[in-house]
Amino acid sequence: MRTEDVLAATATGLWRWDNGAGTVTLDAEAARLLELPAEPGDFRESEVRSRFHPVDWNEIAGVISLAVAEGTLAEARLRIVDGSGRVLRTLRSRSKPVPAGEGRQDYVLIGTLQEVAEPPPGTVGTHTAITGDWRRSREAFLLDAGRALAEAGSTTEVLRVAYSLSMPGFSPDGLAVFGVEGERLTVVGQHGHSLSDEGPFTDMPLDTDYPATEVVRTGRAIYLPTPEDYRARYPATWPLARRFGRRSWAFLPLTVSGRTMGTWMAGFRHPVAFSPDERSVLTTVARMLAQALARAGAADTERELSLGLQRTMMPSLGPDIPGMTVAARYVPTGGGLQVGGDWYDLIPLPSGRIALVIGDVQGHDVRAAGLMGQLRIALRAYASEGHRPDAVLARASRFLSGLTDPGEDDEATAARFATCLYAEADPETGVLDIARAGHPDPVVMTADGTAVVRQTEGGLPLGVEADADYPTTRIVLEAGETIMLCTDGLIETGGHDLASGWVRLRPILERHTGDLEKLADALVQAVHGPGSHYTTGPLADRREDDVAVLLLRREGTDMAPAAPRRTALSIAQAEPERISTARQLLRELLHDWADPDQVDAAVLLLSEVATNVLVHTDGDALMVAQATGTPGERCLRVDVSDGSDELPHKRRPGEMASSGRGLVLMEMLAHKWGVDPRGAGKSIWFELNEAEHPEPAFPADLDLG
To answer: Looking at CB atoms within 10 Å, which of 158, 201, 216, 663 has the fewest?
Structure first.
């Protein structure tokens, strides 16, 4: 009997698929099974593919690729459909892919097609490993596994995800990941038994007669369906593997960019035949695992480098300061390497004082971090020499401008600037002398929780001009008050500008008046924690920035009375716009005042008095506002002093006059007011009592606009 007759009698056909030529050769039976004319012939690849169910074609393409890679048979089930997509029959394909030629990527598939009887609809049938529910569960498993491995951020998380994978139908009971270190194979992680049980498997030379080492050497997977297969192929290590009681093993290469970085071992206590589809699942998981381990390894290395740089560049706060408490935080949120140009420092000075420094070098890269380290060392050196704050910043600006070349276009040498705030604090008196180089102003929190931005004199950022000047501002930190120094990242991160960022931070500062460490954590969480994603500002496309914050509190004794709420500001003749700043400071000081009309009255009176000084004198004005007492019964006193001996006098302006109403308003709106001569100058002051109201607070015909 001829072979063709035997094959036809068993509904088996022969096919030859030339992948390179795009043609398929069929005998008569194979053509009939594919719903083509029942006679031998050559057909176009597209003509044959149109007979397969689309899902099954994707399936066989993966199985063939796996068989080509491993040199094994490609076995799959294929549903044959008509033009309307109705399934006519199911075929089993068993084929051998053969390379088409030396150096060619295509192949020739030679094998058989055989019809398979499917159970009638409504009956309970079994499905092989290539069809039905198993296929759907396998696809769902691979999607879930890929998503979980992609989300793992460290090597530990990747291994944990790998150990938790439950493969459909043939889950292993033991898993191990081997890595390569030099010429030795080591265990990166394992599941199913302790590392002490691994014995010699934890570290072995690559020339050891062991499946995992052979996989690393050859880059090809090894499947051992039975203990007999293991014992026959690896007699030297079989006695060591036998004690684990497993029946089947799969060792797959972990390959990334053509390099085998290790081996993944899956061990089974039940026999596994390792069908082509099961091998496909294992191979896919191994590829995803290798990619995840490579990403996690790079992330671990980057994280360790970042932490090392942070530990090197970020100082410890040093010993305790008598009478003061300090807290600091640094969070890199912008740069890809998680390091940047932000820094803070605490420097003991020869005078017994303490210098607080905070700054931000332009950029979010390694060069910014390097410049930051150099600048921080220079600042410590200048401060340790005993220079005053203005001199320290002037020398630092000259130093930074010498490190960069403004005429170069090369990124490595291009000019960069840095903002900085340098404060010299006296722990005994609470006096702070502050010099500022383009940096955000400090914030002072009073003992009762009021947070006010303290306006300070400032100069250009460091490095912009070699001979820049940096004026100094003196403020006094009363007992129980806290000063916050921060980089602009704390204010602007999350799409905020300086205005909206301050609105976001102020409630946090006023809510956390106790533990300074908790306040520092709360500030960072507000801009970098989960809740920050729901409080984005108007500039949502703004790049995230690093965050550095430094907090200093002057502690007070329990017996000491609460310090009054106070703010001060100098208004120079050449800077009349600072009157607007003074009004804003006064409003912040009175943010919880019981009567908003009194706040408006205080702001109006301050504007009148400060403007009077600038218009009628040749000197500068100094505004000092202070609120004393308990909430609801407080007294506000505002002093505006100048160097002129000329006393103000009351006038009677006409209806069309543009000035002359200052003292009239003072009598109408203030509870008390006066003018005090002070040597070569005078002070104009007024008081408002929170619990009292002048009658009327605002005349009906008074236009405040």
So the answer is: 663
**Smallest Cα–Cα separation from 406: which of 358, 362, 438?**
362
Residue 527, class by beta-carbon neighbours within 10 Å (0-12 exposed, 13-18 middle, 19+ buried)?
A: buried
Contact 687, 670 (CB under 8 A): yes
**pTM for the structure as a whole:** 0.55
* SS3 assignment, position 57: helix
For residue 347, CA distances in Å to 195, 236, 355, 375 come to: 49, 65, 5, 14
Residue with tokens 């910043």: 393
* Rounded distance between C-alpha atoms, residue 311 and residue 305, angstroms: 10
CA angle 67, 69, 71 (to 5 degrees): 55
CA distance 667 to 679: 25
Q: Quote the crossing angle between the two packed helices 155-164 and 132-151, to the nearest 10°.
A: 160
Query: How crowded is the C-beta side of 551, counted as CA atoms within 13 Å?
Result: 27
Q: Does the CA dihedral 212-213-214-219 come out positive or negative?
A: positive
Tokens of 355: 């210098």
User: Rounded distance, CA 474 to CA 227, Å?
Assistant: 83
H or E element that contains 325: strand 324-331
Give 622's contacts (C-beta < 8 A, 6+ positions apart): 568, 569, 570, 571, 639, 640, 641, 642
687: number of Cβ within 10 Å = 15
Minimum mean pLDDT range among 179-193, 196-210, 386-400: 196-210
431-437: strand order across its sheet: 342-348, 354-361, 418-425, 431-437, 472-476
What pLDDT digit, counting tens, does each position of 565-611 carry?
788 888 887 777 888 888 888 888 888 888 888 889 899 988 888 88
Report whether 73 contacts 96 (CB < 8 A).
yes
- AA letter at 212: A
**Rounded distance between C-alpha atoms, residue 651 and residue 664, angstroms:** 8
Query: Could you tell me if 365 and 335 are in contact, meaning their C-beta atoms sit under 8 angstroms apart?
Result: yes
